[in-house]
Amino acid sequence: MLRAFARLYLVLVQLAVVLPATTWASPISTQQVQGVAAKGYRLLDLQPGVEPVWKTEEDKLELLRQGVHFFDVTEVYDPEEAALSVNIEPHATKANFPAPSHLSDIKPILETLSTTNMQDYLANLTSFNNRHYITSSGKAASQYIFDTVTAFAAGRADITVTKFKHPWAQFSVIAHINGSASPSASAPLVILGAHEDSINLRNPWTGRAPGADDDGSGTVNLLEVFRALVAADFRPSTPVEFHWYSGEEAGLLGSQAVAKAYRRAGTEVRAMLELDMTGYFKPGSKEVIALEADYMDAGETAFLKQLVETYSVLDWAMDAPVRNGLSGRIS
Ligand SMILES: *[C@@H]1O[C@H](CO)[C@@H](O)[C@H](O)[C@H]1NC(C)=O
Ligand SMILES: *[C@@H]1O[C@H](CO)[C@@H](O)[C@H](O)[C@H]1NC(C)=O
Ligand SMILES: [Zn+2]
């Protein structure tokens, strides 16, 4: 994680932005969505403020091949929110980010992070033919993550590891560490996430997709950080969750489902950090921790810069924002 080229962006905040009512002649009803989806179509959000559009699976794949960024909202589309409309502010009170002040606590834990361990987890993850969200190997990969995290958490009654199931084979994995100061479910969460799936765009179901960098790297960073924190008997004062998302490559499916469930349950999220493609940097280029500008909370970005300056041997750099379409870097 320290020696990493990180792409970080907020997934949850993206969901809080809902389209203005004026763009909606008549919002699609839940029944309509289910009916069309049953015929094999997918509802894609291609641009903020623009009505989502129906595409066949094949057209959707073609968009992915062309590098077009979108949210597949087929399972999470909410006609009420679309009808209500105005921009909905994020539920959680805007977080205040204090100056980093835990160097003496964190330094010894950083020293226990093992690149060898990360390579071992990665060998395991890349040994699956692919980790596509609908394949049996994709499901087995999520089971591997679940088993690994469960083993790390053994003996800790305050940690719960759950399978967040979806209508497709691969589940998302969530590890919840209770807050020691306020173990109530309502305390705002801090979430660290990565996507567990991979995709071969020419042949998603049976094609080889080791996904070592995208996003095996972010996945193993979080596995190792989780292991090291538990080994160091880390007891956060407020709850912390680790998420490994299913189906990101197919339009951020898993993270949207989790975000929707949390919103429905009134779960407050204080801050969320997503790691994607943290392993690779172009030979000859400077190794940095890259921060995303799109869809990020400015306060959190400023905080992340301070974290990097305080705790990492690397510098941070801002990735170039892409202003057309949904996000610069959904990768
Ligand atoms: C994957 O992990 C399992 C146990 O979790 C282990 O038995 C197996 O040897 C590992 N495989 C690879 C390729 O690392
Ligand atoms: C963890 O928090 C949950 C509520 O979120 C509570 O029900 C449970 O008892 C807590 N467990 C421990 C060991 O504190
Ligand atoms: Zn990715």
From TrEMBL:
Family classification: Belongs to the peptidase M28 family. M28E subfamily.
Alphabetized GO MF terms: aminopeptidase activity; metal ion binding; metalloexopeptidase activity
Name of the molecule in the record: Peptide hydrolase
Pfam families: Peptidase_M28
UniProtKB keywords: Aminopeptidase, Hydrolase, Metal-binding, Protease, Signal, Zinc
Named cofactor requirement(s): Zn(2+)
Keyword Aminoacyl-tRNA synthetase in annotation: no
The species this protein was found in: Ganoderma sinense ZZ0214-1
Enzyme class: hydrolase
Cleavable signal peptide: 1-25
Listed EC numbers: 3.4.-.-
Domain spans labelled Peptidase M28: 173-285
GO biological process, one term: proteolysis
